[in-house]
Write a structure and sequence with these properties.
alpha/beta, 5-stranded parallel β-sheet, binds arginine, globular, Urease, subunit C, domain 1, 12 helices, 429 residues, TIM Barrel, 15 strands
Length: 429
């Protein structure tokens, strides 16, 4: 039935196009297996008809119009382009800890950000939510990608991370004589209800699509705790209230249990990291539909590489405190049915390795289908982009990934996608 409607709507659009004398430049993908993420099913021998950037029809018995450019993926499994809801395209893991802090500026990060964008796209991640940059570089990057000047994923950006003085969002552990911050106006350190409200307005004014704030301490900064709250309930409430006035969603960096609960209470759309979830936090997330965007691959990379990069031992120790606990929390959240998106913190580990988290998500409690849904359908829902991305359906962007091997028996095959298309354009084949 659905199929027939799809065919009918395609024919209507197609003939309408011809009627006004437009040239119908159609791409037809023959998909051997297509994952219908909305229903969690596998469809076989499907045809995807694409016109320009948009998918026009999907179905088993669609006629391929004459003159269409046919892409034969009949020996492959085809999925929607992936969505990573936690990346930092501005910045990377390369280089020594102190050197990066003291000898580099956001200009260095700005010059190289396009490389990270390309790596992410080639990895099959056609949409990202960028949750922390410097100097509004992510806005410039997003605009350049949208203008077609640079290849990269579609971006939703938070611009910079709003944090309190001495928090994970402020650089701590250095002499007070060393000011490593941005000029005050561009710094995202804000204290008190009035300042956080003003900061939200300021970021939205200059291009933030989503707001990110630090509810708790973190790992890769030098505070003593990983999880202590770093804003009061009033400040968190004010951030969410203000963003909501602008129709903007909020996400919160939160490792610690109390901070997680405070952020959920404030009304955030997603908890980032979510390392120390207890039963009450899980129940609150379920009740309110709060997403968990947990970077559960990250620990492997940090433990293996960060001492070599000159990171202080206390940071490594904090990682060891949180790594396993976070994965156990993830497993509990999966079991309880918390909404989960696929957020990796790429930038903390190398850009383009985003798909490495698939195997971790399966190891820690998801079925391969659930992991795929997290990286497509759920990510789109969290972004509020359900109509545009995250599913292969009429009206959505033609963002498509394909792999020859079977991802449902081994999700790690996504680490090397055989085919990547974004907006009808093939980037990798
Ligand atoms: N940006 C995060 C932080 O510094 C990274 C946490 C990485 N560790 C982890 N187990 N997920 O807090």
């Amino acid at each position: 039935m659905i199929r027939r409607v799809l065919i009918a709507s395609f024919l209507a659009i197609f003939t309408a196009g011809l009627a006004v004398g437009q040239e119908a430049q159609v791409v037809a993908i023959k998909a051997g297996r297509l994952i219908d993420v909305e229903n969690g099913r596998i469809l076989t021998n499907q045809v995807i008809l694409i016109k320009g950037e948009i998918i026009e029809a999907v179905g088993a018995d669609l006629a391929i119009p004459e003159g269409a450019n046919v892409i034969d993926l009949s020996d492959a499994t085809v999925v929607p382009g992936f969505i990573d809801t936690h990346v930092h395209l501005v910045g990377d893991t390369e280089g020594n800890y102190y050197e990066t802090i003291f000898r580099k500026s956001f200009v260095d990060a700005a010059v190289t950000a396009h490389i990270n964008a390309r790596k992410t796209l080639d990895a099959g991640f056609t949409t990202v939510r960028d949750v922390g940059d410097v100097g509004f570089v992510s806005v410039a990057l997003k605009n350049a990608i949208n203008d077609g000047k640079i290849p990269g994923p579609r971006m939703v950006t938070a611009t910079c991370y709003i944090g309190s003085t001495g928090s994970h969002g402020d650089l701590v552990g250095f002499s007070p004589w060393l000011d490593t911050n941005m000029p005050p106006e561009m710094s995202c350190v804000a204290d008190g209800v009035d300042e956080v409200r003003a900061k939200v307005r300021y970021l939205i004014k200059y291009g933030a699509d989503v707001i990110k704030f630090g509810a708790s301490a973190g790992v890769l900064s030098e505070e003593a705790s990983v999880g202590a709250p770093q804003y009061s309930q009033e400040e968190m409430n004010a951030i969410v209230e203000e963003a909501t006035l602008h129709g903007v969603k909020v996400c919160a960096h939160a490792h610690g249990t109390e901070a997680i609960k405070m952020a959920i209470r404030a009304g955030v759309a997603s908890i980032e990291h979510g390392s120390m979830l207890d039963d009450e936090a899980i129940a609150m997330m379920k009740e309110r539909g709060t997403y968990l965007s947990a970077d559960i691959y990250n620990d492997d990379y940090i433990v293996a590489e960060y001492l070599k990069l000159g990171y202080p031992q206390k940071i490594i120790d904090k990682e060891k405190l949180v790594g396993r606990v976070q994965r156990e929390s993830f497993r509990k959240a999966v079991k309880a049915g918390v909404k989960i998106s696929y957020g990796t913190d790429a930038g903390v580990y190398p850009h383009g390795w985003n798909a490495k988290q698939f195997a971790k998500m399966v190891e820690w409690g998801m079925t391969p289908m659930q992991a795929i849904q997290a990286a497509t359908f759920s990510g789109a829902d969290l972004l509020g982009w359900q109509d545009k991305v995250g599913a292969i359906k009429p009206g959505a962007y033609a963002d498509i990934v394909a792999v020859r091997k079977d991802p449902l028996s081994d999700v790690s095959v996504f680490e090397k996608p055989d085919f990547v298309m974004k907006g009808g354009k093939v980037y990798k084949r």
